[in-house]
Amino acid sequence: MNPPSGFKKTVTAFFHSIRFRLLLWFTAILVLVMFVFSAFIYLNQVRDLQDDSLGQLSRRLAGMQEAIRVSLNEQDEHLVLPENLFQDNDIFVLVNARGQIMASRGTDSAQEAVQHANAVLQNRSQPQDTFEEDLAWVDTDTGYGFVVAPIFMETGQTSLTILGSPLDPSGRIPTLTANLLVGSLITLAIALGGGFWLADRAMRPVQTITQTARTISETDLSRRINLESRDEIGELAGTFDGMLARLQAAFERQRQFVADASHELRTPLTIVSLETSRALEARRPQSEYQRALRVIHGENEFMSHLVNDLLTLARMDNGQMPLEMSPLDLSDVGLEAIERLTPLAARHHVELETGDLPEAGMLGDHQSLLQMISNLIENAIKYTGGDQKKVLIETGVTGDFAWVRVTDNGPGIAPEHLPHLFDRFYRVDQARTRASEEHADQGSPAGSGLGLSIIQWIAQAHGGEVRVESTPGQGSIFEVRFAVLQ
User: Fold this and answer.
1) pLDDT tens digit string along 444-473?
2) The last residue of a domain, from among 164, 187, 208
3) CA distance 98 to 11
4) What is the Cα Rg of the chain in Å?
């Protein structure tokens, strides 16, 4: 019977998850650490056991030598030693100077012990009859330790005694091996369970982020993860929440932008439709047709101006208006803008005045700065008022920044409107609201509500800032500051 497809997906997802890889790496590292630790314990215990066993053999053999010497003085060959000198499983060999075995115990291994002792002695640089310390070695095949010591006789002859005994008669090494194996397996099992729990707990915030991301759509960006953790996952969640907030704000701006643009275009289209319908209803005097054409022309200019501003802002938002930075004089750009807008000012009966225009060097894009200053002057021309309509344009350098300032004597702006002044399509009051027919008569399109947004974008793109000072009934001052060219 095949397992359900959901179970297969769950198992496959688990084996491809970060949780499984963390568990796998954790297990591999733990196995390596346990192996190194167990090997260290095992080798140290074996070494200590061998050292202890060989030391005990040396002390036992030293205690037996006097009895062996006495027996050798009494008997010449085929020496028989008392059994109480030995322990069970001991191997003992007594070899005379001619290499003959005079006494032995455990004859099955005696000959091999003698051969190994002779090989050890032959490899020494010290002559056989002159070494003063015991020789010891371990036979790994039999698990025995051996000690060789000389016995000096009164006759001047030297005999060798070889004593061997099991290194681990009580089986401590196998017990240690079993304990290390069982302890390692138990530790590994506990660590695997704990590692799985820790990996699952560590990945739980990631699952929360994933589930939240799946519930977010283009139409609903209000969901947030809101993790209170201060670790890396919490930082990731905070970054994700910040990205969602920026996306939500961008989508809201886009929706508002489209809504405002649609609203702004609806009015001139309605006016054009009404004027054309009225003109076509019946024969009218020529002056009526001329008035209708002027209104339609004014609305067309307004829509053209609005569409151009919308395209400009769209390119700015999408980074499609690269700035070609080069050293320039802000005063020269201001003079060029004044020359361009002088006919518009004359048509509105506005006098353009220039204050001090000293050299103000900065690094900027000539075309965008020209558009910015032109928008400032055009905005002042449209909204200046009084019997003597005047707009003052000044530039200068103060400290570390260059500035351009445009002052009008219009109706001014109330303080509560200043924070929203650079919002797109924002209009302050009726004095700054589009009056279609009036602008049509004056030959100038009404403001689209985007000029100040474009001004602010250009200023910020140059690392500058826009400042506004306004007193209701007295006029407004717009000043843009830039870093001066060093």
Assistant:
1) 445 567 788 888 989 999 999 999 999 888
2) 208
3) 77
4) 51
Which of the two residues, 100 and 454, has the higher pLDDT score? 454
Amino acid in position 406: V
C-alpha 204/C-alpha 97 separation (Å) is 81
| Count of domains observed in the chain | 2
Residue 233 lies in a domain: no
Residue where a domain stops, chosen among 174, 208, 242:
208
* Secondary structure class of 101 (helix, strand, coil): strand
- Cα dihedral across residues 47, 52, 53, 55: positive or negative: positive
420 found inside a domain = yes
User: What secondary structure letter does DSSP report for 78?
Assistant: S
Within 10 A of 80 (CB to CB), how many other CB atoms are there?
9
Q: Strand order of the sheet with strand 351-354?
A: 351-354, 390-398, 401-408, 475-483, 465-471
Q: Which pTM does this prediction carry?
A: 0.50
Higher pLDDT, 234 or 482: 482
Q: What's the CATH number where 347 sits?
A: 3.30.565.10
3-state secondary structure of 160: strand
Beta strands at 158-166 and 91-95: parallel, antiparallel or unpaired: antiparallel
Residue 458 lies in a domain: yes
For residue 126, the model assigns a pLDDT of 47
Domain interval for residue 443 = 322-483
Q: Which helix (H) or strand (E) holds 47?
A: helix 18-74
Measure the CA–CA gap between 419 and 470, rounded to whole angstroms: 12
Please give the Cα distance from 341 to 334 (Å, whole number).
Answer: 11
Task: Tell me the range of 232-236, 411-415, 442-446 where mean pLDDT is highest.
Answer: 411-415
User: Under 8 Å CB-to-CB from 458, ≥6 apart: which residues?
Assistant: 368, 369, 371, 372
CA–CA gap between residue 234 and residue 236 (Å, rounded): 5
Which candidate, 41, 37, 31, 56, places its Cα nearest to that of 173?
Answer: 41
- 149 versus 395: which is more confidently predicted? 395
204 and 326 in a single domain? The answer is: no
* Residue 331 and residue 190 share a domain: no
Residue 443 lies in a domain: yes
Segment 85-103 mean pLDDT: 76
| One domain for residues 9 and 154 | yes
Residues 326 and 204 in one domain: no
Q: Residue 51: which H helix or E strand, with range? A: helix 18-74
pLDDT digits (tens, 9 = 90+) for 38-71: 999 999 988 888 888 888 888 888 888 777 777 7
Element (H, E) at 364: strand 361-364
Instruction: Report whether 404 contacts 391 (CB < 8 A).
Output: no
